[in-house]
What does this fold into?
Amino acid sequence: MAIIESQIDATEEAQQRLQLAALFHALADPTRLLILEHLKTGEHKVKDLTEHLGLAQSTVSAHLSCLKDSDLVSVRSQGRASLYSLNHAQDLAAVQDQALRLGRAANQNHRWHEGHPIADGEA
It folds into this structure.
């Protein structure tokens, strides 16, 4: 019986790792983080987000799809429009706060710029 339980546990742990990886993937893109910031103010239509961000509708939609797949945003229809809103706002804020704390400590010794050239205009 212990062997069966350990296989079940391993399967559940593997599934949890996949879910965690998907969440971190969704949070790993600066544009998606910016979309999440906009959604903190309330529901937005894709059109509104494209205007705010200055991006193509297809680009914004692709980012929203990733965020929706990770359960960070939800969507509801209103006529022909889709309205996106933030899920788990308090939990997301806590994750972002912790990530910033970890990032500050990690960036003190990390030399990411050596492997990743700084783009023009970034410092």
